[in-house]
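Amine oxidase
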Amino acid sequence: MRKHTCDVVVVGAGLSGLTAARLLHKHDLDVAVVEASDRVGGRAYTLENAEMGMISDQGATRCGPAMSTLWQLIKDVGVKVWQQKPTQMVYVTENSVSRFTPTSLPTWNPLVRLDHYNIFSTMDRLANQVPPEEPWEAPSAQEWDSCTMKDFFDRTVWFKSVRRITDAFVSMLACAEPEEVSMLWFLWLMGQTGGGRFATLVNSNPPQYRVSGGMQQLYKILVEQLGDRVTLNCPVTKVENVEDGVLVTGDGATWEAKAVVLAVPPPCYSKISLSPALPEAFHHFTMGHAYKCTLYYKTNFWGNGDTFMRLYSDYPDCLAVNAFDDTVPGNKYPALTALITGRKAIEASQTSKEQRKDSICKCLAKAFSSEEAMQPLDYVEMNWNEEEYIGGGFSAYYPPGVLTRYKTLGRCRYNSTSRVFLAGAESATQGYGFLEGAVWAGKRAAEQVIAVVSQAADDSHPEEKQI
Ligand SMILES: Cc1cc2nc3c(=O)[nH]c(=O)nc-3n(C[C@H](O)[C@H](O)[C@H](O)COP(=O)(O)OP(=O)(O)OC[C@H]3O[C@@H](n4cnc5c(N)ncnc54)[C@H](O)[C@@H]3O)c2cc1C
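Structure:
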């Protein structure tokens, strides 16, 4: 067993762990990042398809303008970004294909429009009543946490066509179904992401940015800055509090340190023997279900190149919940990426790769009346629920009852004497489940570790402090 000593161990080399490690290192603390898998990045993964001359982001892809902590990091490390052009929407159902813009719904029926406006503005209004730091303090917290989004839609939405949009909205944001998620949690999540306008079919269409060369570029720079402080292929199995610090055990190695930052997705906590244990609430988190599937084509048959395209599909035979133009500057071929989320991702896992590809191609052929849609040059996919040290995507969700019963969401420390600090996108109360939350939580954990370690150093040299 190799034995190491350092100031702080960071478990998990996703964006949250790397952000924490970067700040701790900048503060002159001796930091070790221990990662279970053979790569850094966690839920961000840029696939490099050398044969096709292509890169594609199979995990986190876009940065929105409101992600202020992420933008600060992007600026600090000097990574380049590019902006996607305005978006055209295409809505495909069993019997119809409608094209529309971000300011017009694919229907002329004024009552349907009213229903659509009503449900999203009601969700936005209720989301504004949920305090970001303590959602259980919302005026109707108990009531909202005792039911699901399905219960809420059942009593609020009038038209089936609008209901299909609201159900898809939950699936796209939470990667889970309306009957699975707590209404209180989902409203709170909406508050985190800028409200209903963020992801509805008719939205304000804020500009979206992508990292040049793929999201992995950001991680590459962070790892370069940390040098040999990052250990791969080393799943951490045990974290114990010992006198004045922690003992972290990984695959064939131990680290004795003053503190540990756990920056792993919630399902992975149960793979680590922790003493003291985390509160019971952590066993009630569930990861969403998500596939990301990219198709490369010879021509951009879906657009004219001036505008990006976003497609929403809404019929039983199509596995994709939505798809977007994934044509990346510098790539040899145009590309489309489809997301299969929630129930459809579970259905997809019971089919073959060929069947999933076929289902998406048929939907594209229908949406764009194109024969080429059936003949992609290549097809790549990633099922995030098969990733042993991630457990699903995009993030973890709360079923009813957990938020108000345990009141544990968003804390960095669970025990004032323990040297275990939590980071990770699911420990954030800003940008929960997104890159923004990952950076925010990593930064917070680093700041808290620095405060505790500095305090301990002062306490062990009181005479120096007096001078
Ligand atoms: C398909 C998909 C698309 C997404 N799109 C976007 C998007 O466009 N924009 C956006 O903002 N967000 C997006 N997200 C969400 C975003 O990717 C995550 O919020 C973010 O990457 C989480 O970062 P993290 O560091 O908290 O966790 P992770 O990235 O999950 O990193 C955790 C790390 O911990 C490691 N680990 C786990 N257990 C152990 C252990 N025992 N020992 C050591 N290491 C361990 C894992 O291997 C992993 O590397 C998307 C996610 C997915 C899956």
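The chain has 13 helices and 24 strands.
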